[in-house]
Amino acid sequence: MKKSTQPEHPGIRRRTVRKTSREVQRSKQEQPATRDQILEDHWNPSEFKVPPAEGKTRFHDFDFPDPLLHAVYDLGFAYCTPIQAEILPSTLSGRDAFGRAQTGTGKTAAFLITVINRLLNNPMPDQRKSGAPRVLIIAPTRELVLQISEEARQLTKYCGIVTISIFGGMDYSKQKKLLAGGLVDIVVATPGRLLDFSHRRDISLNKVEMLVIDEADRMMDMGFIPDVRKIIYSTPPREKRQTMLFSATLTEDITRLALSWTINPVTVEIDPEQVAVNTVDQIIYIVTAREKFALLLNIIIRQELKSVLIFCNRRDEVSRLAGMLTQYGIHCAELSGDVHQKKRIERLDAFKSGKLRALVATDVAARGIHVEGMDHVINFTLPHDPEDYVHRIGRTGRAGAAGTSISFADEEDAFYIPAIESFMGRHLDCIEPDDAWLILPEPVEIKKKRIRRRRRPVKGQAG
User: Fold this and answer.
1) Residue 309 in 3-state DSSP?
2) Which of 179, 252, 269, 369 is 20 to 30 A (C-alpha) from 346?
3) Who wins on pLDDT, 136 or 179?
């Protein structure tokens, strides 16, 4: 492993560069391949070479159709994550599934691979109606819907499978036009907007063969379960569909719902520490509230971070911090509930494409964010809920890739560290930054004003 050529983190004399396992550039809005294009695809599975490894499951070990395996190859996947290795043998055989798994475990790819494999192995005649998906995936937030849809498009790029996203905050007629424009295989939707489409008969759910309910606990917290029930009643009975349900927590209520919506499901539980501890380098700096911004700025500048997600607990903190970073020349944007949905999507796209260096967000607004190559998450303020901490740092170090989480613990936030340690079952080392990293540089705006300032001529004299 090579030594880092970048400046060191404050308080740490030596670090190493950890490269992610996925370095393949992806296109954001790829159209599904046509059947003719698929037939012309001469990719050979022999190009996908992954040696057997003890205790690891390869994607080669499953009999996937070549178009799906080709997409897996393009994404740089080699070995399955724990949840994929444990759940795929059952779900690929058609069994229902019930899993406790958080973001960053690879669960999205697990259920999408199951879905795509079934669609490819069981093609339906083209005479089926438009607006009648074969697969329905329900998620609680618009951001998560977009993330799942994007991952679905990447995995189906050679498959001729059509995926459509349905969520509120966007033009209804445009989404309706997409549904009515031809055959659709996969619909990823938020409950409220999906019910609107169902009530207006712009979508038909009676042909759904596979149903996926993601982040069921969050849907319960947001009050969506009554809507989800109505949606499920619009699909075929559980005996005639395959159902997969995932939740970050397994409460008694969630378990009861899962058992009523599934039949003899395979149950998989992935502990939070498998997400956070094994793949993310966690750094906590002890600072005062006044020192936090200077430290944040120096980390971004001296470490030359190109893509960093910064968390705050409140909307007003997000707005204030984004404004301060802008003053110092950091191209950033805020992501919170105060930002209109269209702008949130635009800002997220700009961040993913590298046009924004930093994104300052609240927990709810950042739910579902998945950015390839983002190896730093910074907690400007520590969350009060330990589970939110795991969700935050899970934005990096995803699906086995390495990442770094940096947290600031001031006079108030330090009290939340023991609860986080208890939740993850491990001790977190806290360090003090070097004094040089606590010196605030001059704002860019003030520098510009000084450069632009000119001596004005005295009245009556020549200029």
Assistant:
1) strand
2) 179
3) 136
What is the pLDDT, as a whole number, of residue 463?
41
This prediction has a pTM of 0.65
User: In 3-state terms, what secondary structure has residue 51?
Assistant: coil
The pLDDT tens digits for 387-419 are 788 878 877 765 555 688 999 999 888 899 998
Q: For 274-447, CATH number?
A: 3.40.50.300
- Residues of each domain in the chain carrying CATH 3.40.50.300: 35-270, 274-447
- Is residue 68 within 8 Å of 155, Cβ to Cβ? yes
Question: Which letter, b or e, does each residue of 174-205 get, where b requires 16 or more Cβ atoms within 10 Å of its Cβ?
Answer: ebbebbeeebbbbbbbbbebbbbbbeeebbbb
* Farthest CA pair distance, the chain: 93
Model confidence at 21, in pLDDT bands (50, 70, 90)?
Answer: very low
Residues ≥6 apart with Cβ < 8 Å to 104: 275, 279, 394, 395, 397, 398, 399
What proportion of the chain, given as a percentage, has pLDDT over 90?
46
Of 3.40.50.300, 3.60.40.10, 3.30.710.10, 3.40.640.10, the CATH number of 35-270 is 3.40.50.300
Distance from the first to the final alpha carbon of the chain:
63
The answer for residues whose C-beta is within 8 angstroms of residue 325's C-beta and 6 or more apart is 296, 297, 300, 332, 358, 360
